[in-house]
Amino acid sequence: MNTHHSRGRRRAAVLGSPVEHSLSPVLHRAAYAELGLDGWEYDRRETDEAALPGRLEECEAQGDWAGLSLTMPLKRAVIPLLDEVGEVAASVEAVNTVVFTEDGRRVGDNTDVPGMVAALRERGVERVDSAAVLGAGATASSALAALARVCDGEVTAYVRGAARAGEMREWGRRLGVAVRTADWADAARAFAAPLVIATTPAGSTDALAGAVPEAPGVLFDVLYDPWPTALAAAWAARGGRVVGGLDLLVHQAVLQVELMTGCEKAPLAAMRAAGEAALAARRP
Predict the structure, then answer these.
(1) Is the peptide bond before 213 cis (omega within 30 degrees of 0)?
(2) What pLDDT digit, counting tens, does each position of 48-61 carry?
């Protein structure tokens, strides 16, 4: 453990717009409590692209900032503002973690990709011979990067429109994944794959819930609120394994805590319990 990080007052926060529903403060604070990092604080700061450069300068000027978590719409906008960008973040053009180093540099990383891999491993998914991805947004490129590590064969991406199909094939080329694209109208065909990763916004896959086959494989649905999604509920009812958005959120936050604090092992169980309790409290 880097003791210089654990002494005295240190700050971190999640930036984004909108950011008020972010569970990150709950997860990171639970980690600090478990690790005995008494002087550490973590909050949320509403920040859009225009405000981002000023926010980074402000954090540096205050001198006690350890790092930042970034959500939409900042993951790409931050890249030109950094001194160094990790390999995974560069590969998907998305930074979700910024660490302020002791020598005054801003280092960007991506914990979504290894977080996805870790969430799958925890549910017993080490390797698959093919996979399907629903959607083509920023999370879909992270999904492809994760599949580069776990999928031996072809990935079929179900998307709306030729432009998005082209983007997904280009991501596949960049990330070293064989990507075939198919029309969203045929998305139910995805369910024959041993692993399906749904990266679409809330409600997008609800109409597909009735198409889940008997004995499906593994579904990784990146949403966590509302949970379960109609698709995840139907999948579980048919006996399929489900990895949820909270799994991803917790695993990527574990890696963020380790990067920001210098602690070797963040407390996964305590962070997940805090996240589950916070989500339960939101439900009517």
Answers:
(1) no
(2) 999 999 999 999 99
